[in-house]
Design brief:
- The complex is a heterohexamer, with three copies of chain A and three copies of chain B.
- Chain A is mainly alpha-helical.
- Helix content of chain A is 83%, strand content 0%.
- In chain A, helix 7 runs parallel beside helix 13 and helix 11 (230-258) packs parallel to helix 14.
- The two termini of chain A are 13 Å apart.
- The model of chain A has no long low-confidence stretch (mean pLDDT 91).
- Chain B has helices at 18-28, 65-79; strands at residues 4-14, 33-42, 45-47, 56-63, 85-94.
- Chain B has two helices and five strands.
- Helix content of chain B is 26%, strand content 42%.
- Classes of the chains: A mainly alpha, B alpha+beta.
- Strand 5 of chain B pairs antiparallel with strand 5 of chain D.
- Bound molecules: adenosine monophosphate (3 copies) and sodium ion (NA) (3 copies).
- One sodium ion is lined by residues 106-109, 248, 273, 275-276 of chain F.
């Protein structure tokens, strides 16, 4: 399947079409609005399900097989901010806190983008290492910490203030809802294994794709409502929000390949590397880098990079992973 | 019906400040608080309640006038620079002054 | 199966029994109360699912087969208010806005009643044109517009005010949550087709009937809480709330038959024609015909016609559709 | 702690008026608003929150006294005849008068 | 814009008292009320809103001064001994005094 | 399978692991918090599903088979407070209202514990009388009434005041959300029977265990948040909260055996007898015995007995039921 088919398969999948429908709802000012409780519920479900499935997969594959690619993923997340930061500072002429915050966002990951990618691979019948959720779990936090450190050191903070805000960031990054659910469910999956899966599969696995479609309908409205802010972020961030994921995506695919992952697994590592956090990172940055402007990082991660990855990014990284292999 | 004058301090700001606000109220020694989620708009743009993390909370705390001033000063110093937030006080009459 | 069996099959189905249980909860003042977020969630799920399924069916059947009965459905919705209005004015002695608002409600449709009917047909093993959801989509709005026009013209409104309130009604009717979800999901279904269905079937199709049962439990409490208002609407509306659906039901069945629908499809068109809107129409009327009294249209559509159709109406229209065929 | 007197206008009415109220506040030039869903009862009967469309919203807006009067007049004229609604003002003390 | 002074009685207490509070307001003859769920903390500990039965409700009722006193007396006598609850009054200005 | 395996099977099941994860979330102060609407939704689903399934089972088995064990269950619930009360008064030196309230809690039942037990039996492949949900339905209320009576008589109440508060308790106990949903769904199940089950099984049965796992994740956070109150209740209640369920559990198993139940059914009766109510009873007691201290009965039922039963209690009662049989 060439890039065109890969794109077509994605753009005509219910998940992506519902996402577009959500964007339309926001743009057309329809009064479609999901209750907050539903948003939280869907997040809890998706994170728990993906973590649990991943944990069961880890228990099947054995840590011996999982640790290397996981370590690679973690490193990737940690280093991405290190070059993203100078780029944003120099080319983007962004202030220290803004550059640091954005760097943290792009090093961290978007769980929903990852889930959409697994869903895409299922759709095109491409197998992948189902323990890949472990990559997701280990990639979310480190970049956030690095981002905060860059911001503090760049501002030449006195070490004590530094310590406290890194502690805040650590707390947010490790005990924040998303990370906690993901890691916790992973542990549950590892401990209960295939035997435990049998009982709950009908809830955590079977309806999963449909729930994702519904969730992306909502995410469409959320992203759509921010499209208005595109004017505010200027041309540089517009370009960055699309080029950064492409660069990071190919890098992730390459690294995944090097770490011995299948094309499916390499695609997922590419997607993780290309995705930008829009929940955990903003929360941590608001608290640890209060001088950074939320409009900048939220708009670029949520209104530019997220839709780009969901619609065309994923198939591109997949095509890259397959091209690489041959 | 013997009532006693008190100050109600109302704080409306982004949900991320939630735990920090609770901490502040503990530190100044308020005897209680009431909290609920709201949406709103202000200088820092619209904050719709669809994503908890992007929404607002409204905190109401009833205190003696002196403590009200203390809370406002702390908000002014530590919160207004960091969070989308407003705060105001109003005069109320309570029963059982000893509770506040 | 004769009318008696048809009724029995309906009244003993979980969906209807849960509905009755909900009415009891309200009447007995049990503290059973569904959170608003759950109500919204169930609505979103049911509308998205029915729309998506319908869209896939349309993509299978092809527009060539769908357009004629859909047009018939649309016409039906548009004309029903035209005779309902004078009846309400003359026989019911209702004011212009009240008569116009009610006419709009009964020309429009209740998605839940339609869904309950598809569920009933499944239960009795009666096949039906699964693209029928398209009828639902095209019947909701036109009658609302007609109703508003009747109210405005009847009140001899100056054209500009007329224009503005028709525009409000149009916005409500076309971008209101229910219509938008239904039409949007239909489009998604048409575009992704059977291939897309495969992935999300386990969420949008398999558990559908059970979700409907839960939703009708809630709708029972909602309708039950309004039973107290029956006193307020007087004997005429009581009779109207039961006779109008019967007349419109038979008419819909006949028209469906004429449009070449199967007995199942004719039943569904009859149900749509018989049902009265209690969400989209009230919302539009509150804004465009503020002088109309909400107690009148909400009580008759929600506390009289809706329970009537759910319990005995649906089987009656089905019996009619079968009788017609032979 | 320098505080400034302001008016808080509270509007409670049916959820259908939501967007219209936001529009009104934009038109009069309020700098912000806070909104949340409530249930209630009044002359127009009970409005329980189980169906969003049938519920109520409470809108709180902090403005200068002059604007408060303007809002009330607009409500009196355009909203009270059409919607189940009440409105009232109360005196509050805010920080950063320039925000309001 | 002719406004009229009224009393707003605010009651915050555990959700279990909900129906009892509605009953009280009916008995004293209040013309309406507004109610929403809140979380909070006070002398009787933290009341988070995760389990409805363990959460709080906030009830706002606008009445003539005389009725306000009556409500407070009833609360003092019948509710404070049984429920985690606070109540207070504030002065407001309403339109259409006849509604209250 | 010996006690050790029985324990192991339970402690490594997703349901229990998610419960532990929830406790950890609360203890580690993660910001994981379920929206109230989700809690209510999950309760409604679980009670409706268990009631409906039970009702269908009753319609299959026939009342002739169900009435005797149900009566036994009801009696058990009624008498448990009668000895619990003096124990709490004398050994625990608790005030009349506190002892009475606690007695009512431990005579009543926890639906979630029951559901977790059915789930456990499924997990270990142990069949049980699937109409056992009827026991749950009849055991919730009586003990609450008895508890209130004990409190009122113990306080030497004037009969009229007594009457009124018993009436309040009756209303709470019979029309409270949980009892109403359970009994109502049971009735629906009985009336619609196996035929009705076919349509809604995919919603009420198939995903059930997974939903339970998610719900116990939340219940873990709820229970975990109350662990802090353990200090407040003193050593006696700590011991009581663990010994009472053990004693009542064995008693229930024995009685179930005597009433001719299978080991599975006897286990469930044991679990019901061992469990303590933490929703219906607290609600009723707050209103009918306002002088009783909520911290005492909520902490012991929710923070001690509930976790004890979920983790180790259930397998112990099961082992007892199997040991008994041989
Ligand atoms: N004038 C106002 N009246 C009522 N609420 C306001 C007002 N201004 C701001 N708010 C609330 O305070 C939050 C933060 O305000 P801001 O920092 O100005 O964005 C807003 O989201 C509103 O909920
Ligand atoms: N006296 C009152 N006190 C508090 N809230 C009220 C009062 N009267 C009306 N309301 C609120 O305003 C809404 C509309 O009032 P009404 O137009 O009188 O039905 C009600 O649903 C209540 O939420
Ligand atoms: N000082 C206070 N300020 C604001 N709300 C309070 C205060 N004290 C108590 N509350 C509210 O009233 C409820 C019951 O208070 P209490 O009976 O003191 O536990 C608490 O859960 C809070 O929601
Ligand atoms: Na990334
Ligand atoms: Na109709
Ligand atoms: Na028990």
């Amino acid at each position: 399947m060439d890039l065109f088919d890969a794109l077509r398969a994605n753009l005509l999948s219910p998940v992506v079409l519902f996402f577009v429908m959500g964007i339309l709802a926001a743009v057309l000012k329809s009064d479609l609005k999901f209750p907050e409780a539903l948003y939280v519920t869907l997040t809890i479900y998706l994170l728990t399900a993906i973590g649990f499935k991943g944990g069961v997969a880890v228990s099947e594959a054995g840590l011996g097989q999982v640790w290397l690619p996981s370590l690679a993923a973690m490193l990737l997340g940690t280093v991405i901010p290190l070059w993203t930061y100078p780029v944003l500072r120099v080319l983007g002429r962004l202030s220290v806190p803004n550059a640091a915050a954005l760097a943290g966002h792009y090093g961290s990951v978007s769980a929903v983008t990852f889930i959409a990618a697994t869903n895409y691979l299922k759709g095109v019948g491409q197998p992948y290492e189902s323990y890949a959720a472990a990559f997701l779990a280990v990639m979310e936090s480190p970049a956030i910490i690095v981002g905060v450190l860059l911001g503090k050191l760049g501002a030449g903070d006195r070490s004590d203030a530094l310590g406290s805000s890194v502690r805040t960031a650590l707390h947010e990054a490790l005990l924040g809802r998303s990370v906690f659910l993901l890691v916790g469910a992973l542990a549950v999956g590892v401990l209960s294994g295939q035997r435990g899966m049998a009982g709950v599969e009908a809830f955590f696995v079977t309806p999963f794709q449909g729930v994702l479609a519904l969730f992306l309908l909502e995410m469409g409205t959320v992203a759509g409502r921010r499209l208005g802010d595109l004017r505010k972020v200027g041309p540089f961030l517009l370009a960055f929000g699309i080029l950064a994921p492409l660069v990071h995506g190919f890098l992730g695919v390459a690294l995944g390949h090097a770490a011995g992952l299948s094309p499916g697994g390499a695609t997922l590592l590419g997607v993780l590397s290309a995705s930008a956090s829009y929940i955990a990172a903003p929360a941590a940055m608001r608290l640890s880098l209060p001088d950074a402007n939320p409009t900048l990082y939220l708009t670029s991660s949520l209104a530019i990079t997220f839709p780009f990855n969901i619609t065309v990014g994923i198939p591109i990284y997949y095509a890259a992973a397959r091209w690489w292999q041959v | 019906m013997q009532t006693h004058p008190m100050k109600q301090v109302t704080i409306i700001g982004e949900a991320l400040a939630r735990e920090h606000l609770k901490k502040l109220l503990r530190e100044v020694g308020a005897h209680g608080y009431t909290l609920f989620e709201v949406e709103g708009a202000g200088a820092q743009g619209e904050r719709s309640g669809d994503i908890q993390e992007f929404g607002n909370v409204q905190v109401e705390v009833i205190v003696q006038p002196g403590m009200a001033t203390e809370i406002l000063e702390r908000l002014q110093r530590d919160f207004f620079p960091r969070f989308a937030m407003i705060a105001f006080t109003s005069d109320i009459e309570v029963l059982r002054r000893e509770k506040f």
